[in-house]
Design brief:
The chain is α+β, with helices and mostly antiparallel strands. The chain has 2 domains: 59 residues, Arc Repressor Mutant, subunit A, CATH 1.10.10; 168 residues, GAF domain (Beta-Lactamase, 2-Layer Sandwich). Strands 5-4-3-8-7-6 form a 6-stranded antiparallel sheet, with helices on both faces. The chain has a two-stranded antiparallel ribbon with strand order 1-2. Helix 5 packs antiparallel against helix 9. The longest helix has 22 residues. The radius of gyration is 20 Å and the shape is globular.
């Protein structure tokens, strides 16, 4: 699975030697694993270059998991309503360890828009949805430190500052990230949702360029995020 995940995250097909080096595997073991994945249809070998790349079979499996996820089914109409009210990109995310996993997204129709795709991941401490969910964790500090260490965008940030921000998030009931180091120029507003295990491991958010997220429009977005997140909790209970 490590080989398959590495190929899926790579920006271009990789040679066998590169996969072995990146994952600290012997070439013989790497060849055997790639051959097995190829036989199963999850990986293809480019005949011209000899490089390996994942096939769409991975996407098919991921699409099945995402479409069947109970949080996606429960929150889908509310995600659409938030998009309709704000006119901005709206996202349903989950907290997976120290990362935010994008589960569902509706992209704003305007020319200037922030785009990330379902299935993508962001360090939780560098994302409004992540802050909204971390604020509900009983011991968020280890997750914050892992998130900051993972990304070069977070290495000049202090975990203590993030912890202080989480206190603000708890007090007002939503997270607001005006100056993101991970996605410069993008503003995000997010509120957490209760899940079946009792933790806030899901969140609704609206995001877009800083030049649009100002004044009355920003106030309207904050109110919409807060109200609709509360409606999800009231209508569906834990998701």
């Amino acid at each position: 699975m490590a080989v398959l995940a590495h190929l899926a995250r790579a920006e271009a097909p990789l040679r066998l030697s590169q996969v072995a080096q990146d994952l600290d595997l012997q070439k013989s073991n790497t060849h055997r694993l790639l051959s097995t994945l190829s036989e199963l249809g999850y990986v293809r070998k480019e005949p011209e270059t000899g490089r390996y790349a994942p096939t769409l079979k991975i996407w098919e499996l991921g699409a099945c998991v995402i479409s069947a996820h109970p949080a996606k089914r429960a929150a889908a109409p509310y995600l659409q309503e938030l998009h309709r009210i704000t006119g901005e990109t709206t996202t349903l995310s989950l907290l997976d360890g120290h990362q935010v996993l994008v589960l569902d997204k509706i992209v704003a129709p305007r020319t200037l828009r922030f785009t990330s795709r379902p299935g993508s991941r962001v360090p939780a401490a560098l994302n409004a949805s992540g802050l909204a969910m971390l604020a509900q964790e009983t011991t968020p500090e280890p997750l914050i430190r892992m998130a900051l260490a993972e990304s070069p965008h977070g290495r000049d940030l202090a975990a203590e500052d993030i912890l202080a921000e989480l206190e603000v998030v708890r007090g007002r009931g939503y997270a607001l990230m005006l100056k993101s180091k991970y996605t410069p120029g993008v503003v995000g507003v997010a509120a957490s949702l209760p899940t079946r295990d009792g933790h806030a491991r899901a969140a609704l958010s609206a995001s877009g360029p800083a030049e649009r997220f100002t004044g009355a429009h920003l106030d309207e977005i904050i109110e919409a995020v807060r109200v609709i997140a509360a409606r999800v909790a009231n209508a569906t209970g834990p998701i």
